[in-house]
């Protein structure tokens, strides 16, 4: 089944067959990071191993049909904490117990705390990470880089400073810090940026919205602050910088931490955010239906449907996936849709419960289905 909606193949990201960003860490890399943590491996040696494994990963992505390659987040332990702790005024800390439970499974006891005025001093390890990826990928390869949303600071950080009366007050410093850092990424060659933001799940259910109230905030007001933060950090971005946002409900060792459809947040997500597109989780019933897509009010917004799960190795029935894409097209034109896994394969270095071979089978499945829907070369 081939349904063409464009007369020429799509060459600009987001691609019709795309992915969220993280990949399973090879055993060699995991071992190296453990040895580094124990003091048995130098930073230089760890970096050399990371470089070699990222080079192999980039090659594998190309061979399996990926057009916008990432570094798999191979230099990170967490999808979000490593980046946020690189900002001024934010530190990592070890909690006495794990953070939020994922279906009863506790993650490692890591967290971030705000200890002073938040800022960006012009130096951040992720700038170097991007430059290295760009060099490894080569000039002829599209490169995607992922960073966590500023909303994670408000939603997840512990505040241990008198610099801010309320968590939301940190936005005054956080937004310009992000904007400056994104400018430095752009100057380093970044043209495809993805902002990962699990904090939007705070608005998906009455239970989660009540958590916000219990914390002293109004969810109906805070959701607009979330949108203003995203719009603020990308305001004034160059025309050739594509910015996507990814929303999911948690991804740790094939477990999730919350459920709920997009309906209660849809007007803001689809109607107020000024991103170029959204990677959305739709791999099972926890994500609800496609009806919230009716609130999309821009013809230039791409919605990447996360219909292929990274949490299980079994390949989805392609007829079912194609039918679901066409179902989504009832609410949004097919040319505004794309396909991807619902999340990365390793949001933390532990990774999900599947093998590397099964991981690449999932990627090939995405590419194959996308080419059937949008035509050869549409990936």
From TrEMBL:
Q: Which Gene3D superfamilies does the record cross-reference, listed alphabetically? A: 3.20.20.210
From the UniProt record, give one GO term of the biological process aspect: methylation
**Does the keyword RNA-binding feature in the UniProt annotation?**
no
Q: What keywords would UniProt list here?
A: Methyltransferase, Transferase
What does the record give as EC number?
Answer: 2.1.1.14
MF terms in GO: 5-methyltetrahydropteroyltriglutamate-homocysteine S-methyltransferase activity
Specify the superkingdom. Answer: Bacteria
Q: Where does the record place a coiled coil?
A: none
Q: One Pfam family from the UniProt entry?
A: Meth_synt_2
Q: Which SUPFAM superfamilies match?
A: UROD/MetE-like
Name of the protein this chain belongs to: 5-methyltetrahydropteroyltriglutamate--homocysteine methyltransferase
